[in-house]
Amino acid sequence: SLGFAISCDIEINKAVQFANLASGVVVGKIGSATVTLNEIFDYESSLKKSYSNEHIKSWDEIDQIVREFKNKDKKIVFTNGCFDILHVGHIRYLSQARSLGDILVVGINTDESVRSLKGPSRPINSLNDRSLLLSELVCVDYVVSFKEQTPLKLIKMIMPDILVKGGDYTLDTVVGSNDVIDAGGKVELLKFHDGYSSTKYIDKIKKR
Questions:
Q1: DSSP 3-state assignment of 75?
Q2: How far apart are CA 101 and CA 108, in angstroms?
Q3: Can you list the residues of the chain whose pLDDT is less than 50?
Q4: Eight-state DSSP code of residue 194
């Protein structure tokens, strides 16, 4: 792997890092084994997962990342929400969404966007805090914020293979559904978990 990297005119320090990643993949296999480029890149991504900020991206960054994954024939899944108070319903929903493809991108409303949707008392947690919590989840690959009330512009930019929303939506009420379907993608409506809601938790705390 080191020889291969050097033959591709990769600088020696980066070539050594590449070879080290390749060996990390190979030793996880049984017997004499080979390693593919995709396995090396996926392994490198998994190592970076421990650094949460690596998975909170700007629009330009997520656009480039999605293009690269699409070139590798990876299936992109997208969903969105305020995620003001992270709860079990969110975890189950995001885990199920991630299982539908290779990469899960989560769009999250900015604080201003949440206020316009939920009222002046929301959000409870800031955008930075909400983004960091989401990025710590194993099932979430990337988090990107949007300032509009809906993620339509973001969806059109990413153009995911699968657009996911909860079962409390219908196909005609999912923002961006027509665009994704027209581009050859799919819309998945996941089971809605009753009893879990940030608003309900907030009301419960207020009553107590």
A1: coil
A2: 19
A3: none
A4: T
What are the structure tokens assigned to 42, written together? 């996926």
Closest by Cα among 92, 90, 120 to 108: 90
- The answer to whether 105 and 66 are in contact (CB under 8 A) is yes
Judge whether 82 and 123 are in contact, CB under 8 Å: yes
Q: 78 near 162, Cβ under 8 Å?
A: yes
- Grouping H, G, I as helix, E, B as strand and the rest as coil, residue 54 is helix
Residue of 159, 161, 133, 157 whose CA lies nearest to 146: 157
Under 8 Å between Cβ of 146 and 107: yes
- The model's pLDDT over 25-61, given as tens digits with 9 standing for 90+, comes to 998 888 888 999 988 888 887 776 555 568 999 999 9
38, exposed or middle or buried, with CB in 10 Å at 0-12, 13-18, 19+?
A: exposed
Write down the H helix ranges in the chain: 2-7, 12-26, 37-48, 59-71, 88-98, 111-118, 127-135, 152-158, 177-182, 198-207
> For the whole model, what pTM was predicted?
0.73
Q: How far apart are CA 46 and CA 37, in angstroms?
A: 14
Give kind and range of the element (H or E) at residue 105.
strand 103-109
Which among 197, 192, 17 has a CA at the least distance from the CA of 1? 17
